[in-house]
Write the structure tokens for this entry.
Amino acid sequence: MDRLYYDNPSLLEFDATVTGVEDLGEQALVTLNRSAFYPTSGGQNSDTGLIYGIANGARVRVLDVQEQEQSGEVQHLVECPPGWLRPGVPVRGEVDAERRRDHMQQHSGQHVLSAAFERLYNFATLSFHMGDDYCSIDLATDKITPQQLEAAERLANEVVTEDRRVEIRYATPDQAQTMGVRKIPPAVREKLRLIDIRDFDLNACGGTHVASTGQIGAILLRKTEKVKQGVRVEFVCGLRAVATARKDFQALTEAASVYSAHVWEVPQQARKSIDEIKAGQKAQQRLLEEVAELQAANFLRVASERPSGSGQKLVTEFFADRDLGFIKLLAQKIVRLDNAVALLACGGTQPSLVFAQTAGLPNDMGALMKETLQKLGTRGGGNRDMAQGGAPDSTRAEHAIQEAAGKIG
Ligand SMILES: [Zn+2]
């Protein structure tokens, strides 16, 4: 089979003859005697497009292109196998131009970027991944500084603006050794296909590439991440870089309008907001402490001593609009201010119960809570002096503390 993309990566339309059709039901695998469709390999994603019947003008969509592992045959996955697609039929293939251009921009950009990291810092590229929204390379290094990223991005984009020619050359592995090829694949082949970015990079690769570096458009580095084999650098090239920058700008503009600020002031404004929220939370906590302290004193003033002779007072209160945090705080204040048992409940989004007693009193709050929760069918727990749990709703929370109060001597 003739791989037309090998020597002519800009060829997007070609004539061929069907050599095989494997019916998969809804889809079919089609092989041709020659093809310009690039199969997924070497980090680059496959082309998509159309196959036309020359005799009848009918067409099928090419959804995916894969290389058969053993035979190396290029298989075109097409939708709903039509009857006319049979071995011997002459067809015309049409590669989706936009998708191919995008892949060429990403893949050629990757060669330039990998070479830039290698030249500047001797960081070898261990792998290349092409995703739907961004691409990444894994570099053989423990860490990369922001300055190194910026310098590599700068050099890579200089190479783009210099519009250097990108040529395809062939060499034996032995010849390649003497030519300074960046990375020679371990698989022994008679002939290596080399991508030569003039006076900048020479690397063995079977992918489709731009004719000159200017066609890459732009190389934009994104996130970095520590991975097992080194550092992963995400990047986007060409029109993807433009689309990504546009998306970033829209998000920043939206954030800036929330703050009524310029986009460049967003980080400063966001930090300021977080500081203000933290200060507000601190002030609220101080006020809650004060409220709890005052309420604890008030509840104890009106509570009378229980008849059991232990001198304990009982406070049983339900708070429709408070949360678990507050009733815990209040319970702590009550049992510290006096010899007391506090059976508190709250409603709100998470109805809860808190049982507490002053250390040394004879009741068992943990056991009382356990008994209560069993009836409610909810979860919780605690120790002799302090326990908490959930309630299915406000009404049952309120009812539960009344029932528990009956068990305090
Ligand atoms: Zn490559």
